[in-house]
Amino acid sequence: MTSDTPARRRARVFSRRRGAPSRARRRLGAAVRMLAALVLAGGVYTAFTPGAFAEDNVQLSAVAREGKALYDTSCISCHGRDGQGVEDRGPSLIGVGSASVEFQVGTGRMPMTRQEAQAEQKPPQFNDAQTEQLGQYIQELGGGPELPDGPLVANLESDPDALARGGELFRVNCTSCHGFGGGGGALSSGKFAPSLSDATAEELYAAMLTGPQNMPVFGDNQLTPEQKKQIITYISVQLQDDKDPGGLFNLGRYGPSTEGMAIFLVGITLLVFTSLWIAGKS
């Protein structure tokens, strides 16, 4: 057996030091691997989500070119070149889709006259053709939700249960803000849910699809296109055709609660005066 001399111990220590990587080298290697992973993830994301960014040299259709001319004269000051947005003026329009443009511009909410808590509905500044051109430009610029083709109201002859199902969906998803009768209601910070009394089927579908103002987005995984059409059918047929859900009288179109309160107050008042009259006579 050979003795463990100091020279041999020093040789073993030197060999271990030379074979094991230093702490600095290990950290540098980890940083390089992390950087490579981030570059790879970013490349995959860019490759599979091209619609999230505006293309500089996108080839526009004839309708979209007309929309770009309107955009450059009426929208660019707030939403910036190619819809990229301007800080403290207007958000980016990349990915909002033609449905959002048709709702906001078609109802006169855009262009806004001034910055306020909520864009209010007013007479639109663009006609239907111009609104479609603006929507097509934004759609081709960055993609996003679009209104479907075909009728947006269910056919009650082929689907007689659509009205009842639409009413149930409306009560579950919409009444907390828009009220039982679609009359609208106040929200926080000066915002409000508008009345649905004069909303068109296209406006209703676009609102559910894009979630304007404080309204949530009802994607197809939450409300299918068929369910959206059923809600629109209920609003169009049951709430907009002079049919008051409260019953006999139209008291704000908020439903039976307002009529019940009115009857209660009137009844109590009559009973009080009748009691006073009887007491005075006796």
Automatic annotation (TrEMBL):
<feature type="binding site" description="covalent">
    <location>
        <position position="75"/>
    </location>
    <ligand>
        <name>heme c 1</name>
    </ligand>
</feature>
<feature type="binding site" description="covalent">
    <location>
        <position position="177"/>
    </location>
    <ligand>
        <name>heme c 2</name>
    </ligand>
</feature>
<comment type="subunit">
    <text>The cytochrome bc1 complex is composed of a cytochrome b (QcrB), the Rieske iron-sulfur protein (QcrA) and a diheme cytochrome c (QcrC) subunit.</text>
</comment>
<keyword id="KW-0479">Metal-binding</keyword>
<feature type="domain" description="Cytochrome c">
    <location>
        <begin position="62"/>
        <end position="142"/>
    </location>
</feature>
<dbReference type="GO" id="GO:0005506">
    <property type="term" value="F:iron ion binding"/>
</dbReference>
<feature type="binding site" description="axial binding residue">
    <location>
        <position position="178"/>
    </location>
    <ligand>
        <name>heme c 2</name>
    </ligand>
</feature>
<dbReference type="InterPro" id="IPR009152">
    <property type="entry name" value="bc1_cytC-su"/>
</dbReference>
<dbReference type="Pfam" id="PF00034">
    <property type="entry name" value="Cytochrom_C"/>
</dbReference>
<protein>
    <recommendedName>
        <fullName>Cytochrome bc1 complex cytochrome c subunit</fullName>
        <ecNumber>7.1.1.8</ecNumber>
    </recommendedName>
</protein>
<dbReference type="GO" id="GO:0005886">
    <property type="term" value="C:plasma membrane"/>
</dbReference>
<keyword id="KW-0249">Electron transport</keyword>
<keyword id="KW-0408">Iron</keyword>
<keyword id="KW-1003">Cell membrane</keyword>
<feature type="region of interest" description="Disordered">
    <location>
        <begin position="1"/>
        <end position="22"/>
    </location>
</feature>
<dbReference type="GO" id="GO:0020037">
    <property type="term" value="F:heme binding"/>
</dbReference>
<feature type="binding site" description="covalent">
    <location>
        <position position="78"/>
    </location>
    <ligand>
        <name>heme c 1</name>
    </ligand>
</feature>
<feature type="binding site" description="axial binding residue">
    <location>
        <position position="79"/>
    </location>
    <ligand>
        <name>heme c 1</name>
    </ligand>
</feature>
<keyword id="KW-1278">Translocase</keyword>
<feature type="binding site" description="covalent">
    <location>
        <position position="174"/>
    </location>
    <ligand>
        <name>heme c 2</name>
    </ligand>
</feature>
<dbReference type="InterPro" id="IPR050597">
    <property type="entry name" value="Cytochrome_c_Oxidase_Subunit"/>
</dbReference>
<dbReference type="GO" id="GO:0008121">
    <property type="term" value="F:quinol-cytochrome-c reductase activity"/>
</dbReference>
<keyword id="KW-0812">Transmembrane</keyword>
<keyword id="KW-0349">Heme</keyword>
<keyword id="KW-0679">Respiratory chain</keyword>
<feature type="compositionally biased region" description="Basic residues">
    <location>
        <begin position="8"/>
        <end position="22"/>
    </location>
</feature>
<keyword id="KW-0677">Repeat</keyword>
<feature type="domain" description="Cytochrome c">
    <location>
        <begin position="161"/>
        <end position="239"/>
    </location>
</feature>
<keyword id="KW-1133">Transmembrane helix</keyword>
<keyword id="KW-0813">Transport</keyword>
<dbReference type="InterPro" id="IPR036909">
    <property type="entry name" value="Cyt_c-like_dom_sf"/>
</dbReference>
<dbReference type="InterPro" id="IPR009056">
    <property type="entry name" value="Cyt_c-like_dom"/>
</dbReference>
<feature type="transmembrane region" description="Helical">
    <location>
        <begin position="260"/>
        <end position="279"/>
    </location>
</feature>
<keyword id="KW-0472">Membrane</keyword>
<dbReference type="Pfam" id="PF13442">
    <property type="entry name" value="Cytochrome_CBB3"/>
</dbReference>
